[in-house]
Design a protein that fits this description.
By secondary structure, the chain is of the alpha/beta class. Helices cover 46% and strands 18% of the residues. The chain has 2 domains: 133 residues, Alpha-Beta Complex (Aldehyde Oxidoreductase, domain 3); 150 residues, Aldolase class I (TIM Barrel).
Length: 287
């Protein structure tokens, strides 16, 4: 998966790397230029200081090699592996200046991705006895979405739409601005016909009337039950009666995710996977 995910979104990752390098290095790494000779060669190891799921190893390799293709990167662990304090993840050898210039970007990326993968893995494990799939959302860090969604995949979750461009989600505001669920979906149906688009359409329903209206449209891919409590979810599932796949979201936590998954809902989406995860402590050390 690591190679295929990077390849699928290679242009986006290359743009991210270039902008991150530009942001951090700017006119030059003057700290290193001041005291490290250009010809110096060194080796460094990524040291784990906190247990979790490691994520971002392949991206780290791409960051190093995009800045300096002569750097030699040797992975020790694989993306998705459990790690503990004291473990070594990879080594990198080559220009000392290049290693120091890319150190912080690599660490920031891996720490963030590993935190997301760890949280995703923990929550996915809690509901693994059900058929419910765990999804991320668009609640991501600007310009870091592809890496964060990659981390969710590494942790065992699945990606919702990548952005506004690859799936439709008709939410409460769309419905209210159109005047009703039926009007919003009639317009959506016409739009899809004009676009000749096979895009998935997820529809957020707030009550039984909206559910009834949404079910009537064959192109609707999934019913989203946002901020529903257990009683409301069960009532909605009974009404939907497997006519459409279902998704629960909003106010879902470690404390209630199992109960929600056990209702039989097909998907649970959690913005917290990306906006509320804690970065894993990692360090790049000279060897």
């Amino acid at each position: 998966m690591p190679n295929s995910y990077y390849t699928q979104f290679q242009s986006q990752f290359e743009h991210f790397i270039d902008e991150a390098l530009k942001e951090d290095i700017g006119t030059g790494d003057h700290s290193s230029l001041s005291c490290i000779d250009k010809e110096d060669k060194s080796s460094a190891v990524l040291l784990v200081k906190e247990a979790g799921i490691i994520a971002g190893i392949h991206l780290a390799k791409e960051i190093f090699n995009r800045y300096d293709p002569s750097l030699i990167f040797k992975p020790i662990k694989k993306d998705g592996e459990s790690v503990k304090s004291g473990d070594h993840v990879f080594t990198v050898h080559g220009s000392t200046q290049a290693i120091l210039a890319t150190e912080r970007i690599v660490l920031n990326t891996l720490q963030r991705m590993s935190g997301i993968a760890s949280m995703t893995h923990e929550l996915k494990k809690l509901i693994q006895h059900t058929s419910c799939q765990l999804l991320d959302t668009r609640k991501t860090t600007p310009n870091f979405r592809y890496a964060e969604k990659w981390a969710v995949k590494i942790g065992g979750g699945n990606n919702h739409r990548m952005g506004l461009f690859d799936a439709l989600m008709i939410k409460d505001n769309h419905v209210d601005f159109c005047g009703s669920m039926t009007k919003a979906l009639q317009k959506t149906e016409l739009y899809l016909e004009q676009q000749n688009s096979p895009l998935e359409v997820v529809v957020e329903c707030r009550n039984k009337d909206e559910i009834e209206q949404a079910i009537a449209f064959p192109f609707v891919s999934r019913i989203l039950l946002d901020n529903h409590n257990l009683e409301e979810i069960n009532r909605a599932l009974k009404q939907i009666d497997s006519k459409k796949p279902t998704e629960a979201s909003g106010n879902i936590t470690k404390k209630n995710i199992v109960a929600i998954a056990e209702t039989g809902v097909n998907f649970i989406s959690m913005g917290a996977l990306t906006y509320d995860s804690k970065s894993i402590d990692l360090s790049l050390k000279a060897i």
